[in-house]
Amino acid sequence: MASEYINQWIRIEEDGIYLVFGVTKENQLKLFHFSAKPLSEQEEKKLTENETFLREGFQLVQVNFSGYNRPYEKHGNKHIVTAPGYMLTFVDMKDERNETGRVLTFIQKDEETGARVVTIWQFYQGTTTIRMQSEVTNEGTEVQTLEYISSFYYLGIEKEGEMSSDDKMQLTFAHNGWQKEMNFHTYSFPALGLPQTQPTVYQRTSKTIELTNTGNWSTKEYLPMGYLSNEEADTAIYWQIEHNGSWHAEISDQNDHFYLALSGPTEVQSHWFQNLKPGESFTTVPVAVGVSDADFAKAMGQLTKYRRMIRRVNKDDENLPVIFNDYMNCLFGDPTTEKELPLIDAAAEAGCEYYVIDAGWYAPGLWWDSVGEWQESRERFPGGIKEVTDYIRGKGMVPGVWLELEVMGINCEKAKNAPDDWFFIRHGKRVFDRSRYQLDFRNPAVIDHVNEVIDRVVNEYGVGYIKMDYNIEPGIGTELDADSVGAGLLAHERAYLAWLDSVFKKYPDLVIENCSSGGLRIDYALLSRYSIQSTSDQEDYQNYASIAVNAPAGLTPEQAAVWSYPQRNGDEEETIFNMVNAMLLRIHQSGHLAELSPERVALVKEGISYYKEIRSDIKKALPDWPIGLADTRSTFLCSALKTENKAYLAVFRRDKDEEDDRTMVRIPLAHLFEGEKKLSVKLAYPQEAMKENVEYTYEADRKVLAVDFKKKVMARIFEVTAE
Prior knowledge:
This protein is an alpha+beta fold.
């Protein structure tokens, strides 16, 4: 469609993604459309009929330097109408292909500030997902201070359809916290403070919807991802910010439209700015943004495919070995040779393939504030820790140990003797958190220290698995050798990623688990490198079910380690529930297996044996939630992993709501498979034990599975086969 204000239209359809760009008569590049459906002529006309709105909005990138006016419509802290962002002019666009898919490169320039911005959009063939980054270079003659730059910016997220955004727009995201990970909820815009009660009247607000992290625990409050659906148009946008530190996602309004802005650290939210001398550049953190129908499971399926594509190739995510770890509801950081040996025997007998000695192996007694040297404790292990790791290997398992290499305790002798530049510094003093110091991975001496520890545990202790924990939050950053404390934090985090890359280059088969007080760093800067992620430190198996059910939205199933910890005083149904929590993800077995009854041990063994039969499907399956995402108070929960012709269902009943006395749950199955297929259902785990406690019926005409649980706390695995 012609527009008097647009000189050039750029229309792209690739991998089910519809994009529309325009170059205005003032030679500015605008992004008008990013969707799973084409842009209608009516919508296109609306977008380009107001010259003022066109000039002020629809930037591809928002970039803000200090000291420049922002004259247009902006209220509050919104990252819009940035300068030189709104002044950028179009230079060139490249359209190429590589082994991954199509690549679009956009080049923009501002003569006044000297800013040159190169934006790269990498498509991933076979998904509806694009990975994006921008680089800004100071090609001027003066130092420029960068306060903000977006990794993705899109104005007009609500434009499809005729209804008010109040009625059609929904935002789904995950509240995240220690022992409360993956807590997904869906909100309308009005519920989050952005109503559009009179859509015919020009709307303005200073209110923003913000999902933000400041600090080194990247997911201590939210996962860095979201899903935005337009229920009227049946379209959705999903995203993840791939950064292991401070990040910011923002939704608000500008000129009668709503926008989505994604970035790494910012000055307003995270005390970050970067001085760019002439010739210097800064590159944003990567983000992934994709489109789908207004179907959360479909969107997460696309994101799952993408996550598998960007992940480091490794044997752990190919083989999905079963891991025993001695910590949770077991030794709880108090290991000794005497305690480990019977557990090792029991884990091997149950079918575990890795055995991890968790926290405490390096010090007698209380050790929290003295960690940092990571030398074995002969009081705990009189014959040395290698005696135990050799015993583990002798039982056919790969040994592992717990480390927390990014910190040193305040009573660690090495920390006392190390210079201050080993650590985060603010206001001229070392940063404390929970009796620990934060090591600065920009320092070569720190890298030498952590490399020595890795080499020793691998080569001397015979370790093939490291649980890499991280239990502090050092805050906004470090002032040492940085323009801002946030810039110091970002440089440290990028140095940490580079160090991880070097470790995996040296030890490609070493399995390193990403743990941060459970799931407080579930981000794909780290998970594109680590093969496995601790999902939680949750100690209650009923509460863990909510986390386990929702986990495949936050990360791939084969990376999501879930504890199974049968209790000493539990019963058979409790054991089954614990196993079902983990069996569609990665089994992190724990609990006092050597002290369980033979009947309960048999249930653990059966669960692990069945897991080994299906894990070749888990690594390629896509997630689904047939009765919706889990809520912490839900009585019934259900998650599914599906391949082309098979689905595995984990179904739970919990004692969470005194007013909910239902025993039966009805689970729709038709949507799990494409086309009209005949379905069959069987109880897969446990096959024989406790059958009297559950009845199930498959209603073939409706394609509904009805499960009737006879006890208040139960769980089962079902298989659904399509023919």
